[in-house]
Amino acid sequence: MKVDLFDFDLPPERIALRPARPRDAARMLVLEGDRMVDAGVADLPRHLRSGDCLVFNDTRVIPAQLHGRRGDATVGATLHKRAGARSWHAFVKGAKRLRTADRIDFGADVAAVVDDKADDGSVLLRFEGDAPVELLLERAGQMPLPPYIAARRGTDAADADDYQTMFAGPGGAVAAPTAGLHFTPALLAALADAGIGHETLTLHVGAGTFLPVKADDTDDHRMHAEWGRIDAAAADRMNAVRAGGGRLIAVGTTSLRLLESAVGDHGRIQSFEGDTAIFITPGYRFRAIDGLLTNFHLPRSTLFMLVSALMGRDRMQAAYAHAIASGYRFYSYGDASLLLPAA
């Protein structure tokens, strides 16, 4: 499909630079079948049914944004996927000027050597020393805010908490599973009181989620792989939800993509551990999920293509036009949409 079919005009003032406070005070646009309703995230319990189950991504964002020097040249690096105990793939500003074996000093006694360069423009960095890389990143790294926020303000202390979900566990993501940012203990308790359960899985979100689709046709776009895990017990519980008539609602496109990567031929979710590079566009047949809670996405992005696959492109274009006209806030710190396709 032509990528320009997924374009739309978004005024810059619709991009949220800070999250709603409290988190569950964000607005929520509900699309259920042919209905479209303006609501709030705190209203979620009454827009779902007893027996439904929300599926959250419990990945933790690491301080993966690094600034350093190679000789007299400044270097900006964003880690995007672990390659080994001391090695990470990274997108590097000015990567063409780097050579294999170049040493980059990131300050705070943190340095890395360029081990390899890939065709996609990324480089493989090997961190020096014996200290765990996680500790090195805590010393020298910053939270990797999305470029559409970072271009308009600097990272500050508030982002260390704001850009982490309440479910954050295993570290490894370089971007937040942002739909999960809307949840609070109070909202989770209200959902439980309404008979709505939850499960977690892990997908370490990579910086590739922010990359624009440069191809003219979706067939020519290459997704970056991300590592994920669903344990067997969680898969069994989620299958039991659907067998009992409940719905699985993915919280975020990251949860949805991992679930759809783990589903078998007969619609049963299986345990999963490994990489996924699934690319969902209109025409895709969803087998693992019955709905999606997600934020509002970029024009021409793989994520807008995904929601268009779930609800229909014309429907999502109309919904986004309504959201823009109605003052909804977009992107990582923005408002939410609850997408429930007709059965």
Task: Characterize the structure shown.
By secondary structure, the protein is α/β, with parallel strands linked by helices. It contains nine helices and 17 strands. The longest helix has 13 residues, at 313-325. The two termini are 25 Å apart. The chain has two domains: 3-61 and 161-340, 3-Layer(aba) Sandwich (QueA-like), CATH 3.40.1780; 65-141, Thrombin, subunit H, CATH 2.40.10. The protein has helices at residues 44-47, 133-140, 147-150, 159-162, 185-193, 232-243, 253-262, 302-311, 313-325; strands at residues 27-32, 35-40, 53-57, 60-61, 65-70, 73-82, 87-93, 103-107, 110-117, 122-127, 171-173, 197-203, 226-230, 248-251, 272-276, 291-295, 336-340. The model has no long low-confidence stretch (mean pLDDT 94). Helices cover 22% and strands 28% of the residues. It has a nine-stranded mixed beta sheet with strand order 2-1-17-16-14-3-12-13-15, with helices on one face. The protein has a six-stranded antiparallel beta sheet with strand order 5-6-7-10-9-8. The chain has a two-stranded parallel sheet with strand order 4-11.
Class of the largest domain, according to the CATH hierarchy? Answer: Alpha Beta
Taking pLDDT < 50 over at least 5 consecutive residues as the criterion, the unreliable ranges are none
CATH topology descriptor of the largest domain? QueA-like
Order of helices and strands: EEHEEEEEEEEHHHEHEEHEHEEHHE
Total beta strands: 17
**pLDDT average, as an integer?**
94
The CATH superfamily name of the largest domain is QueA-like
Q: Helical stretch count?
A: 9
Give the second-level CATH assignment, the architecture of the largest domain: 3-Layer(aba) Sandwich
Helix share bin: 10-25%
Radius of gyration: 20 Å
Question: Main sheet: which strands, in order across?
Answer: 2-1-17-16-14-3-12-13-15
Pfam family, one: Queuosine_synth
Catalytic activity: 7-aminomethyl-7-carbaguanosine(34) in tRNA + S-adenosyl-L-methionine = epoxyqueuosine(34) in tRNA + adenine + L-methionine + 2 H(+)
EC number: 2.4.99.17
Organism: Sphingomonas jejuensis
